[in-house]
Each structure stands twice: as C-alpha cells, then as structure tokens.
Amino acid sequence: MTEFSTLSIKETITSLKNKDFSVSELVDFHISSMENGRELNAFITETADIAREKASDCDQNYSKGEEKPLEGIPLGIKDMFCTKGVKTTASSKMLENFVPPYESTVTQNLWNDGAILLGKLNNDEFAMGSSNETSFFGEVKNPWKNNKDNFTVPGGSSGGSAASVAAGMGLASLGTDTGGSIRQPASFTGTVGLKPTYGRCSRWGIIAFASSLDQAGPITKTVKDCALLLNSICSYDPKDSTSSQKKIPDFEKSTDESVKGMKIGIPKEYEADGISEDITEYLEKGKEWLTESGAEIVEISLPHIKYALPCYYIIAPAEASSNLARYDGVKFTHRVDADNIIDMYEETRSQGFGDEVKRRIMIGTYVLSSGYYDAYYLKAQKVRAMISKDFKEAFKKVDVIYGPSTPSTAFELGDKKKDPLEMYLNDVFTVPVNLAGLPAMSVPVGLDKEKLPVGMQLIGNSFDEESILSIASCIEKSAKFDLNPNKWWINE
Amino acid sequence: MNNLIKGETGDWEVVIGIEVHAQIVSNSKLFSSASTKFGGEHNTQVSFVDAGMPGMLPVINWVCVEQAIRTGLGLNAKINNYSIFDRKNYFYPDLPQGYQISQFKQPIVGEGSVTIDIDDKKSKTIRIERLHLEQDAGKSLHDQHPEFSFVDLNRSGVALMEIVSMPDISSADEAQSYIKKLRSIMRYLGTCDGNMEEGSLRADINVSVRKPGDELGTRCEIKNVNSIKFIGQAIDYEARRQIELIEDSKIIDQETRLFDPKKGETRSMRSKEEAHDYRYFPDPDLLPLSFSENIIEEIKSELPELPDDKKERFQKEYSLSPYDSNILVSEIEIADFFEAVTKGRDPKIAANWITGEFFAAMNKLGFNIVDSPITIDNLSKLIKLIEENIISKRIAKDVFEIMLENNEDPEEIVEREGLKQVSNSGELEKIIDNIIANNPDQVEAVKLKPKLIGWFVGQVMKETNGKANPKLVNDLLNDKLN
C-alpha cells in the first residue's frame, strides 16, 4: 500500500492523475489517520461521511478527466471558518451548537476547486491564544514530543490546523492569523504556514476576532503545497469591503523562481535578546543557505517594532470586545436563562466565554472607554502607522525580511498557561506583520536540541507573496527538513 | 414675534436643538441587500448581516450614500468626500451585532442651514451642525407573549440620516416649522418619505430654558417624538416644567426623557449617570467612505427645484402672494399639481381654487392630492370655464361638487345641466326691464339708497337660475336705474 502520510498535495495529485490510487482510498486513509489520532485532540468535528461521499464524486471527475485543481484533496479546516451545515464553534462553549447556514468564501473557493472537508479543527477559543490551551474542547497536543518525552503545545491559535498536518491527518489545513496564529503553530510543528497580505483573502464567513488583523491562510507540508492552496483561497470578494481587487498571480510558479540577486533584510533589532541559542544557530545557517543561492544579506532596522506587542494587545482586544458583543444569548448562541435581560447577558457571557476571551474583552472595553481612548487606542493606532512606515522604508532596500518565527520552540503543555504576559511574548516576531498587513510565512529549517522543530519567518512587501515563496522554497531545499514525528499517539 | 414664556420671576427664553432620524428612501438596507419595505411579516426582511451572524460583513449601499449627499446639498451643507463609519457599542436585544454602525467624528455632511418662515414677511435660519449615516436597530415586541419579549429585525440595518440642528430654535412653533420644512425638503429630494406614523421620521428634542441673555441652561433630551403635534406639546410641557423647577429653586437634571402622548407630559427615562459609554471606534470592517468631487457635482446638477426657490419663482412667475406660494410649495405633489392645473390658465384663479375649494374637499373626503378623485385635466377645464366667464363662481362650486362624485368633465356637466352663464345683454335686458316694470316701489327706493341695487341683482339671478353673468347684470342695472 502507498505510504499516504508522507505525500504532499502536489505528489498526491500526480498520483491521482496516474490512477496510482483513488480519491476514495486516499480519503479512507486520512479518515483512519484522523480517527487514530484522536489522542491529539486536533479535530472538534469529524466529517468522515461528507468526505467519503465527496470522494466518489471526485473519483468520477478523475475518470472523466474533468478534475479541478485540488480535486479529491482532503483538508482540515480551522473551526473559525463557517461551514454550511457543519457545526462551527470557534472552540467556544458560546457557539458549542452553532451550525452556520452559509459557507465562508475561502472554504467555498477550496470546495469549488475540488478539495474535500475532512473535519473542523481545534483552536484557541475565538483564536485567542498561542498554545491552543484556551479551547473549550480541550488542549491540542503537538505530535512532536521533546527529549524528556513530555507533551508540548502545538502553538496557537491554529493549533489543531498545524498538529493535524504534522500528524498526517489531512494533506493540509486552513488556519487564521491575527497575530501569528498560523506562523507560530507552523513553526512549533515543523509545517509550512503562510499569512497572506491583508485583503488577499476574503474574511466573509470567518468568525471575527480582530477585523483589521484577521487573515486566512494555509498550513501545509511543503512550500509548493502552500502556493497551491494560496492559488485557490485568494479571491476578490465584493462581500468583504476590505478585500483586494489586486491581480492574483500564479503562486506555484514563484516556488520555482531563482533567488539569485534577491536582497534579504535581517532586522538588527531581532538579534537582541530572548532568542534561544538553537534558533540563533539556524538563523545563521539560513543566511549561509541564502548567500550560497545567490541572495544578498542586508542589515536593516525596524526601530518601532519593539512597540508592536503592546500596540497589538490594545488594538486586537479593542476590536474583539466589539466583535464578540453579538454573542449575547439573544440569538444563535448558548443562553443562560435569567429573570431579566441584564442577568441573562451576564450569566450567558460569564458561562459562555473562557478566561482568556474574557480577559481580552475586558482589556478591549477598557482601552475604548471614554477618557482612556486617546491614551490607549488612538496612541496604538499611531504606533501602528509608525510600524507600517518602518516596513515600508525597509522594503525600499530589500525584497524579503528574514528572521525567526518565534523566540523559542514548542513549550510544554501548561508551561505558560498561568502567565498571560509570558504567553503574549511568544508573538513578538509575528505580531508586527499583522499590524502592517504584510504577507509572511514560517518555514521549517530543522530540529533543536530538544528534537523539536524550528521555523524561520519570511516577511514580504505588501501583496508580494511571490518573493517570500521563492525564498521559502530555496530554504526548504537547503534545510531538507523531514516532517516525520514519531507517531506515539497510534496505539499499536 | 415674541417667543418668551412668562414665569413667576419674569420672562423665560426656550432654547431648542433637534436631532432628526430620517429613514432614507432606498430599496435595500445600508449594509445589506434585505428589503426596507414597511409592514412586512416579522423577521422576513433580514439578511445574515442584519441578524449579526458570525463572520458576516457589512458592505455599503451606495444608493444610501448618494441620498445622504443629495440631502446635504438640499440643506446647503458642506459635503465631506471623506468620512468614517464608527461602531457605537451597546447591548440591547434588538441590536443584533452589539453595536450600531454610525458616523461619529467624521460625518458625511457638515454644516448647513434650513430657512423657516416665521410669518408672511419674516423668516429665520436654523443652522444645521451635521448629517451622518447610520443603521437603524430592530424592534422589541413586548405584547406577543405573557413571559417573553420578541424581537423583529425587519428594521435592523435600515439606513437612517441623523440630522442635527444647532440650538437655534426658540419655540414649539418654530420647532414644528423646522420639522415641516426639513420634511418638505427631503420629500422634494426623494430622500425620505417623511412618514412619521411609520417611523420614517423621528425627532429627539433638546430643550433648555434661560432668562434672556443668560448662559445656556441644563438641557433635557426628549427621545423619539413621532408627530408634529407631539413635538409642540412635548416642548411646551418640558419648557414649563423646567421653568417651574428653577423658579422653585430646584435643579434640572441633565437626562433623557420620554413624551407620553396620552398624558401630554414628559417623564424621566435615564439620567446622565446612567448614560452609556458607547466606546465609539472606526469600524474595521468598512473602508473610509470616500468619493470624488465629480460625484457631488453630478448629484448637484440633478437636484430638483427646492421649496425656497420654487416659492420665489411662484411669486414672480405667477404673481402669487407669499401666503399662497407657501401653501402651494409645502409639498412637491401640491406644487406639481398646481403647475399642471394652471398651465395656460389664470394662476390666481387656479391657486385660489386649489388652496380653497379643492383642499377643503380633499380634507373632508380624506383624500391625498396624489389620489385626488378629480384629474388635473378636469380641474384645469373648470378653471377655464370660470376664467372665460362661461360659468359664474357660484355655479362653478356646484359643478365642482358634481365632479367630485365621478370626475366628470366639467364642460359636459355645464352642457348637460344647462349651466352656461347668460352673457347675452339683450336677453338680460329683457329680464331686467320686466323686473323694473313690476317693482316701481323698489325703483324709487334705490334712488335714495343705491346699495339696494343688490336686491335687483338677486331678482335677476333668481329669474336666470343663477346663470346670469353678475358683472353684466350690475352694469346693465346701473345704466337703467341711475
């Protein structure tokens, strides 16, 4: 039998075209992977029946030679994307039983291209978290254990999306990234994760966390797969006013482009403090790989990114406090009955939301309050503009900015749960990108001393996903990372 | 005109500012494609956006933007071609998103003005502070179930213009004139139907009182007053209440009040301390609203003639009095009706007939000018018959009564009923001679008291069933009796 679990999307499509195996066989394999991997808790809702049904349609399309670009590719979808007729929870008790009567634009694009829904993936509640420990449906375990054989977190908020791909449950997945929620988990699990430029993908049908920062993106095994999915999910959507009408290039082509002569910026601020030794080592290795391939390393400065984290933790909660106001018990959510409307609101929201969500709603409510608005929200917006300007200046000199995705590799479950500030620090490299609305991706480069994956981040200029894909492809070839964690979760 | 109110301690001045919520005439809502039609079954005109479903996003309806620009131009206001939508955050069951999309710091329309008539000679300018776009909320229904309240979201997301006046209004009368004028302008523009019963036009009224020349007093806001009559009553009551409080050495609390039409009084709704902190911030789901000067110019070039200009033209073109002009331009339908009727006719006769007999009949029968049982054509023919002395004014009233029944052609009525005025002097002379011959006593009397000529006129009319041309009768009688 074919070893399905190591195949990329690209290889799978070739095999399906060659009739090496059928979509039904492929899907059956992934369904059993999903079922055998329940220990990881990556899926909230499994949709095996839908997948099997669709698989036979796909097989017919292949036999008729009418296959679409992603025909028969089983994918897991983060539970922030509304899927028509399939429960969509945002990993919250509040939406425990919510079944959307509509399909998000991004997932609809995938289905239009022939992809198959395997199940809905666990994430931090309302995408708020960096370890996937805030989910109402329980924590997700990283397929990679450390040397001490302890469980580690898969990162967050797209923890289920990253863990499922690393564990071979689904060929790829979709995540959302508001402050690093695709790149940080990709980095922790040895997968490739890309956050497109703000506006590349429609936000319509994605449960909103922070509207000015949220963006959908793929988590895959390879850079090329990432480009393939990107080709499918990006579209101009008149239903999203912030969606871009910019032309969408063929991203797959970019992965074959030479990086010769490209200028790679390394922010000097990155080399400061708090980065683990192993990561610094890979940072240096990466420079060598790129130089060997003909790219030029240039030192740049992003003087204001040190303010990115506090800025983010004002803007994101502010927007979230408003976005989450609709979950009030009146309509489609969990409701706790009470004698009067105020008590009903309070009880419903006290029970329906977890601690981290409540924390951010409170922060957001506070920074928008009259008397505090100017000092916090308005100031944060000014800082945001300065950070954007820093990047704009930098991209006058370089094509891509290179650096670490995270300050450390995956930490142990429960390690940072008690200290929100320590948890927030994990987003220090990813957050500035969302504030500036830029595209960025995390590429796996190897394992650290703890045998945990290390990811490097590539940041591109606005609407220049192509350059980061070219560089990522180059690093991938040099790093030769083997995405093959020991499958401890399968009971032999 | 003196607007002062007498109190125990002297005269008081009332200071009024009004915020009008005007529903925009558009087929679909401000940020969704759901219908805005009035009177639909509960929750049948609700899109996923209007219901605040997860992941749903607002998309601006440009028709509503154009309507706001149009209205701004009608208010002689500055149009801001860059404005921002903000979220106004508060919890309420009929507010599905938990926030209302509105405009806070940068509205689409800036300062403007509305001119109201104080009397035939005097007018007054009420300054407009701003006009902004916002969505309406849904409606809570408390009378459907003994234990539960229900919510109807048909109104949720409907486009409103909030038009804020400066505190330039000094009496209930002025406030009513202001609302009427604003409504008239918007109806001319086709931007708001002004239907207060259906809630298309609501007013929040800020009232304070002071001694003339003093600083502004503490104001109270009377929310959601929905008829012109109630606006007058609410202001009168509220001003009186505040004066009595101050004269009793009591303090006025800055608060929101409600007008109870049954009792004719205002009562406290919530105090300043209970006021919401709306946590306004720019809506990240919407781009700033921007458009080119060309769009403004284009809309400007297509604006209809507005009431003030029309009034001036009516006075010049038709030599109408300011009073008649005012009545005729008050509603676009009346003005159009008048202009159609008067085409080729004497405008003064047309104006008199429309503002007189015609309006009286419409009021009595409960008709609107648009569904008038008499067509423009037939009313115009009637004016022609009067103008050409074919029928007398008195006969015209009888003809009009018949026309009201089934819109019959007045010429046919006159023909059939034989109502043509007798303007043949030979014929009339014969009748007059007869009367003179038969009434020698009266002939003697009229020589001493010329006013008695009226008795002879009456006799002629009696003989001719009212059809004699009164001017001719008068002339002939004067000749023969003097």
Provide an overview of this structure:
The complex is a heterodimer of chains A (about 500) and B (about 475). Chain A is of the alpha/beta class and about 500 residues long. Helices cover about 40% and strands about 15% of the residues of chain A. Chain A contains 16 helices and 11 strands. In chain A, strands 1-3-2-4-6-5-10-11-9-7-8 form an 11-stranded mixed sheet, with helices on both faces. In chain A, strand 10 and strand 11 form a beta hairpin. In chain A, helix 10 packs across helix 12. Chain A is globular. Chain A starts with 8 loop residues before the first helix and ends in a 13-residue tail after the last helix. The mean pLDDT of chain A is about 95. With about 475 residues, chain B is an alpha+beta fold. In chain B, the strands form 4 sheets. In chain B, strands 1, 2, 6, 7, 10, 11, 12, 13 and 14 form a 9-stranded mixed sheet that branches. Chain B has a 3-stranded antiparallel sheet with strand order 5-4-15, with no helix packed on it. In chain B, strands 3-16 form a two-stranded antiparallel ribbon. In chain B, strand 6 and strand 7 form a beta hairpin. In chain B, helix 2 packs antiparallel against helix 3, helix 12 crosses helix 14 and helix 12 crosses helix 15. The longest helix of chain B is centred in the middle third of the chain and has 20 residues. Chain B starts with a strand and ends with a helix. The relative contact order of chain B is 0.10. The model of chain B has no long low-confidence stretch (mean pLDDT about 90). The chains are: A alpha/beta (about 500), B alpha+beta (about 475). At the A-B interface, helix 10 of A face loops of B.
